[in-house]
Design brief:
Blueprint lengths: L16 H8 L7 E6 L6 H16 L5 E7 L8 H18 L5 E5 L11 E2 L5 E4 L7 E2 L5 E4 L20 E8 H10 L5 E8 L16 E5 L5 H9 L9 E5 L4 H12 L6 E7 L9 H4 L6 E6 L2 E5 L7
Parallel strand pairs: 1-2, 2-3, 3-5, 4-6, 5-7, 7-8, 8-9, 9-10, 10-11, 11-12, 12-13
Antiparallel strand pairs: 13-14
C-alpha cells in the first residue's frame, strides 16, 4: 500500500492539528485507495501498512470506495521473504474484501480475486478483472466492465443474472465467439470495444441480437481479421447500432473484409463506419471505401466524412 505523506489526504494530516482533525472528519477524501502487492516482506512496515489501511477505511465512513489493487511479480517466489510478504498481503486483502459492499469502482486485473470465491457488491458500477473472475461478483448495478485477458474464448457463465444492467464492455483480447456469447448475458449493452480480435473456434450461434448496442469498436490490421469479422457479424441483429469503429487502415483489403462481415449481418444500413488509422482523411480515395456504402450511410476517417451514400429524391 502506498503511504505517501506528500500527497492528499495524508498530507493534510501533517499540516497542523486543525487540518488533521478536518481531514479525519471529511470521509470523501478517504474513499480512494491504492494497494500495491506484494510490497515488502513481513515486518514492522507491513504492520504499519495494515494499520494504515484499517485507519483509512475508518476515516472513509460509509462512503462508497474506489479501489486499485495491483500485485507485482517477484523475482523469486520461493524466497521466504516473498512467502512472508504474501501472508501479510493476504491480511490486507481480507480487510479490503470485508468492505466489498461499499465497492463502487474496482481495478484489480491480476490473481487478486482468486483469494475469494464470491463478492457481494451491490454498489459496484465499474470493474476491471480477468474473465474467469466475472462470475464471482454479485453486482446487479454493474455498469462498466473491463476484461483484461490474453485471449477470451466463449465462456459458460450466461446463467449469472446479476450483471444484466451492464452498459459498457471493454475486452483486451477476445475471440469472435466470446463477443456473440455476450448478447444473452448483457441485453442492455450499449458500447463494445475490443483491442485484439481472433476468429471463432468451434460451433456457435449465428442468430444473436444486441437490442441496445449503439457503438462497436473492433481492430482490423491482420489478414485473419477478415474471418473474425464474418464470425462476429454473421446473422447478427444490432437494430440500434449507430457506429462501427474500425481500428485499422482504410485500404482495399481491409474495406473488403469489413464489407463481407457487415454484409453477413441481419442489420444493414449502419449510419457510420469510422476508420481510426494513421492516414489523413484527405489522403483517402473515395473509390477505396465507397463499396462500404452498400452497408453503411457514411464512411469517415478519424471522424471526417470521406464518402456518403446519396439518397434518392422523389418528386
Amino acid at each position: 500500500m502506498r503511504a505517501n505523506f506528500s500527497s492528499p489526504p495524508l498530507l493534510f494530516t501533517r499540516v497542523c492539528r486543525l487540518w488533521r482533525d478536518a481531514a479525519h472528519l471529511t470521509p470523501g477524501i478517504w474513499s480512494r485507495i491504492y494497494v500495491g502487492l506484494p510490497g515488502l516482506p513481513a515486518g514492522p512496515l507491513n504492520s504499519l501498512f495494515t494499520s494504515l489501511l484499517q485507519s483509512w477505511l475508518v476515516h472513509s465512513g460509509s462512503q462508497l470506495l474506489t479501489l486499485r489493487m495491483h500485485r507485482t511479480a517477484s523475482d523469486n517466489e520461493n524466497d521466504p521473504a516473498y512467502v512472508r510478504s504474501s501472508i501479510a498481503n493476504s491480511r490486507m486483502l481480507e480487510i479490503l474484501f470485508a468492505e466489498a459492499e461499499r465497492w463502487e469502482t474496482v481495478f484489480g486485473a491480476s490473481d487478486i480475486f482468486e483469494e475469494s470465491d464470491s463478492f457481494n457488491t451491490p454498489h459496484l458500477k465499474t470493474l476491471e478483472c480477468y474473465s474467469l473472475d466475472i462470475t464471482k461478483f454479485d453486482a446487479p448495478n454493474l455498469y462498466r466492465l473491463r476484461v483484461i485477458d490474453q485471449l477470451m474464448y466463449p465462456l459458460e457463465f450466461a446463467t449469472n443474472p446479476t450483471s444484466t444492467n451492464l452498459r459498457h464492455l471493454y475486452l483486451q483480447n477476445a475471440a469472435a465467439g466470446a463477443i456473440r456469447s455476450f448478447a444473452a448475458m448483457f441485453p442492455r449493452l450499449e458500447t463494445l470495444e475490443v483491442d485484439e480480435l481472433a476468429p471463432h473456434f468451434g460451433p456457435g450461434s449465428h442468430s444473436d441480437i444486441f437490442p441496445c448496442l449503439e457503438l462497436i469498436s473492433l481492430p482490423y490490421y491482420h489478414s485473419y481479421h477478415a474471418g473474425a469479422y464474418i464470425d462476429v457479424f454473421r446473422g447478427l441483429q444490432v437494430p440500434k447500432l449507430q457506429k462501427l469503429t474500425v481500428v485499422g487502415e482504410p485500404s482495399t483489403s481491409e474495406v473488403e473484409g469489413v464489407l463481407v462481415g457487415l454484409a453477413s449481418a441481419v442489420t444493414r444500413n449502419i449510419p457510420t463506419v469510422d476508420f481510426q488509422s494513421s492516414a489523413r482523411p484527405d489522403t483517402v480515395e473515395v473509390q477505396t471505401v465507397e463499396a462500404l456504402l452498400m452497408v453503411a450511410l457514411v464512411i469517415t476517417v478519424r471522424g471526417e466524412v470521406v464518402a456518403r451514400r446519396e439518397v434518392a429524391k422523389f418528386a
